Each structure stands twice: as structure tokens, then as C-alpha cells.
């Protein structure tokens, strides 16, 4: 008897203010009819900015609510260390081929870090198999 009452009441919609539980629409996760995969809706839209604005400002770098995008400055206005970030650093296999006694401090430090990371991964793989 109690089960029949519950089945009859489960279709009653109770406002969120009463229950405190959020209810979702039944068709929220379903795709619209005629849409194939929804890829067209997810595709990026074509940019409406002119080439001049794109080349003189850093579009999307503004973090302030009322601010504007910063302007691109000449290379001489940026610090010297910024350009070193683009340099390629040697991989672990390349560092292993070199003599550790003659490596500069930064490369030796990188070798220790990468070698330690590799050993941790190998130990985790062995533990996962057991």
C-alpha cells in the first residue's frame, strides 16, 4: 500500500524553496533533433578584430574588470630574462650522454630532477603490477 502511494506521488513537482533540492530538466542532456553531435555549436566563431588591433595589443590578456588589453611594446622594453624562456633545455637522454663532472650547475640540477622523476615513475609502475 505504501509503495503505491509513493509511486503516485513521485510525479508531483515540489518547488525548490520548499525542498532545498535543485531539480534538473529531463531533456537537459539530450541533443536537439536534427543536430549531429553538436559540433557546429561548439566551433569557435570567426574573429571580428582587425589585423591592426591584433598586431598592436595582446588580446585577452586583460585581467581587470574595467581594464583594457595591454599594448605590445618593443623588444627593448622587456627584461632580458624573458627571452631565455624560449631556449630549449636538454632532455634526460641527452644529459645522460654527457659527462656529469663537466655539466654546468643548471644542467646538473635539471639532470637530478629529471632522473629522480624517471625513477619515481619506474617504481610506481613496478608497484602497480604487483
Using brief descriptors, characterize the structure shown:
mainly alpha, 7 helices, 130 residues, flat
Describe the structure.
It is found in: Mitochondrion. This is Large ribosomal subunit protein mL54. InterPro entries: Ribosomal_mL54. The mean pLDDT is 78. It contains 7 helices and no strands. It is 44% helix and 0% strand. By secondary structure, the chain is mainly α. The protein has helices at 2-9, 16-19, 39-42, 51-56, 81-84, 92-97, 105-129. The chain is flat, with a radius of gyration of 30 Å.
Secondary-structure content class: mainly alpha
Q: What is the overall pLDDT average?
A: 78
- Distance between the amino and carboxyl termini: 53 Å
Cα radius of gyration in angstroms: 30 Å
Protein name: Large ribosomal subunit protein mL54
Pfam families: Ribosomal_L37 (PF08561)
GO molecular function: structural constituent of ribosome
Keywords: Mitochondrion, Ribonucleoprotein, Ribosomal protein, Transit peptide
Amino acid at each position: 500500500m505504501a509503495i503505491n502511494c509513493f509511486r503516485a506521488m513521485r510525479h508531483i513537482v515540489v518547488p525548490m524553496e520548499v525542498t532545498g533540492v535543485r531539480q534538473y530538466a529531463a531533456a537537459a542532456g539530450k541533443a536537439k533533433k536534427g543536430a549531429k553531435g553538436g559540433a557546429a555549436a561548439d566551433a569557435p566563431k570567426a574573429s571580428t578584430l582587425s589585423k591592426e588591433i591584433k598586431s598592436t595589443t595582446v588580446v585577452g590578456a586583460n585581467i581587470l574588470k574595467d581594464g583594457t588589453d595591454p599594448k605590445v611594446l618593443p623588444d627593448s622594453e622587456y627584461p632580458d630574462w624573458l627571452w631565455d624562456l624560449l631556449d630549449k633545455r636538454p632532455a634526460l637522454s641527452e644529459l645522460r650522454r654527457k659527462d656529469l663532472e663537466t655539466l654546468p650547475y643548471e644542467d646538473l640540477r635539471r639532470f637530478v630532477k629529471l632522473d629522480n622523476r624517471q625513477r619515481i615513475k619506474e617504481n610506481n609502475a613496478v608497484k602497480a603490477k604487483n
